[in-house]
Amino acid sequence: MGDFEDVPTLGVEEEFLLTDPGTGAPAPRNAQVAETARRAGIDLQLELTRCQVETRTAVHSDIGELLAELRTSRRGVADCAAEHDARLLAVAVPPTVPEGYPVTDTPRYQRIAHTYGMLAHEQGLCGCHVHVAVPDRETAVQVSNHVRPWLPLLLALTANSAIYRGTETGYVSWRNIMWRRWPSAGPPPYFASLAQYESLVAMMHASGSILDKKMVYWDVRLSESFPTVEIRVSDIPATAEESALLAALIRGMVTTGLRSIAQNEPAPPVPGEMLHAAYWNAAHSGLDGNGLHPVRGSVVPYRDLLAELVDRIEPALRHSGDLAFVTDAIAAVGKRGNGAQRQVVAMRARRDVTDVVAELARATLEGCP
């Protein structure tokens, strides 16, 4: 085992957009699709708007098995959507002009819509959340401190929302720009302890900026349902393989953080202002641009930062058996582009958003059985 304990288990949640097969517009049919999925033995969750659904994997130790489930799940949900004349898209914002985002008819979602107004009604944003097992909540807070400097890099890697309302936004992750309007969204603060984390959450709840603990939308948060730390900075990746890559990198980061904690190595207290600047760079330019080094603050190409991250967590990736997969998957993204890069190429070919939708549809089920 060397410096590491057992390999942490992990699970992935993927949010998808339901769209009209002809126009690509958001299709408000999540309840019907979820019922069909239930009869097929697929646990499909409803999201804030009726145009969205969410899948949740089982708990895994092996990345290959996680990837296989992600692929099978995407195919199964796509088939269920097709029964209701809807197409499943792994995309973080609707690329076409939406007619509206009707809110899902549950008491909690209706309360959110009433409280937050247009924030809820302009939602339709799809992300990917990775849960990694940790020993306890106090450890989870310390892991958050170690992971937070690298969050902009994960956003740049998975960016998948360059086209919105039928036009190029000028950003690779328009979802991130929109998402951070919520009062509790964005990078988490640097926390000295679990008590400080819980005190801030209690203050936000008491003030009304969040309605419950599930509305702690920080990009690293403590799960209220599982013994995990949850990393949620990512756009929904275009392909299942990219979601598995994200999960493998995050597990490597968490494992490396756990080792640092065991060796009493503190996480760098990166200022929030620097993180916010790095977030904007990541959402604007992505892998093709420059980012801020997570510790030094110097300007570094994101591809160099990605290589540095892999070098940093390489011992953890070797220990989990993920190094070869991560290396190959990063090379594949570099060759074909991530979701945002695919969208821009498709859009610029004929200036026709239907080409973007078709490319996203291909990517969503790429490699799926």
TrEMBL record:
Leading EC class: ligase
Q: Which keywords describe this protein according to UniProt?
A: ATP-binding, Ligase, Nucleotide-binding
Entry EC number(s) = 6.3.2.2
State the function annotated in the UniProt record. ATP-dependent carboxylate-amine ligase which exhibits weak glutamate--cysteine ligase activity.
Q: Which HAMAP family match?
A: Glu_cys_ligase_2 (MF_01609)
Q: Into which family does the record put it?
A: Belongs to the glutamate--cysteine ligase type 2 family. YbdK subfamily.
What is the protein name stated in its UniProt record?
Answer: Putative glutamate--cysteine ligase 2
